[in-house]
């Protein structure tokens, strides 16, 4: 079990994710986050000195959840093709975890006005490229490491289109087409 | 020369584009747009009854400008490959016209909370796919029409990564790599 402090931080940042998805970055304040997490006034300020610190922690939370999902897909996905894994990841991200990715895109645009958030997102993006390379190696996928940065950019872009469409418009066949395109872009012969 | 009313609408929506890029969607109000365009108080309300009408007109303005650029690229780009055209378009969009595309991404996220804006963006997205198919045909590019919707999604996604990075981080070699990946995703043998 995580220590109580970690649990509380997760509750607060999860509330921030929900608010970012529902109301945009303007909807995230210490007070709104406490209310949404059903915690007493003042809790958020105890954990996050500033609004920017809260936004930074929320970005870190999204990426930690994303990497945890990728790792689980590695365990259950042995034998799956790169297209299977990416299609499944995109579809789940655009439906079950839609709020989480809407939140990270809101934060990405907001980072242009907040240097500390920009620095965090840049570090997280580098970490995601490294994580994805290792993930491909662990799964014996025939994807050249030098193609991964481009694939991550295209995956992120495809996900932006999917989560910023109206909910319910995400179509499994279209998602599979995007996954095939992403894999083909990296490895011409693989699909 | 366009009629004075069209000119005034363009001034107001161009001011809205600049504000969206600088301050996010929350920075766009009738008053802020008039100030930014150096026009008298009340002008914006004369043209746009509501804040949503102003945002809708701004989305239409971005797409009209985008299509005009694509048409110009068609005139000057005879003989260019699909990769040349897409790399050039992405680079210019991410540098010279960065504000315009930051604006459309801000509007895309905001559209999840505004049905009229969502309907406009959906219609504009369909129009862009149709426009791009015709553009490819005019230029004799060997891109299958059925691949265009996926290419437009990947182009939009790549552009999101580029314009939401810090200004000055846009690298011509990386942009060319993205353009090659997008074309390869649509037409495996073309690059």
From TrEMBL, chains A, B:
Which of UniProt's keywords are assigned here? DNA-binding
What are the GO MF terms of this UniProt record? Answer: DNA binding
Q: Where is the HTH tetR-type domain?
A: 6-66
Q: Which residues bind DNA?
A: 29-48
Q: Which InterPro entries match?
A: Homeodomain-like_sf, HTH_TetR, TetR_C_31
Signal peptide span: none
- What sections of the sequence does the record tag as coiled-coil? none
| Protein name stated in the entry | HTH tetR-type domain-containing protein
UniProt source species: Virgisporangium aurantiacum
């Amino acid at each position: 079990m995580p220590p109580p402090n970690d649990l509380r931080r997760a509750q607060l940042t999860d509330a921030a994710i929900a608010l970012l998805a529902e109301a945009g970055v303007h909807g995230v304040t210490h007070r709104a986050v406490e209310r949404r997490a059903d915690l007493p006034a003042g809790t958020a300020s105890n954990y996050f000195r500033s609004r920017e610190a809260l936004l930074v922690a929320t970005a870190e939370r999204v990426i930690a959840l994303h990497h945890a999902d990728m790792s689980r897909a590695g365990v259950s996905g042995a034998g799956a093709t790169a297209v299977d894994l990416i299609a499944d990841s995109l579809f789940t991200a655009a439906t079950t975890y839609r709020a989480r990715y809407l939140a990270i895109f809101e934060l990405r645009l907001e980072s242009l006005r907040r240097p500390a958030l920009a620095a965090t997102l840049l570090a997280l993006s580098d970490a995601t490229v490294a994580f994805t390379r290792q993930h491909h190696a662990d799964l014996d996928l025939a994807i050249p490491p030098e193609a991964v940065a481009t694939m991550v950019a295209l995956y992120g872009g495809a996900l932006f289109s999917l989560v910023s469409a109206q909910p319910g418009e995400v179509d499994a066949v279209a998602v599979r087409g995007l996954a095939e395109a992403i894999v083909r872009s990296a490895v011409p012969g693989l699909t």
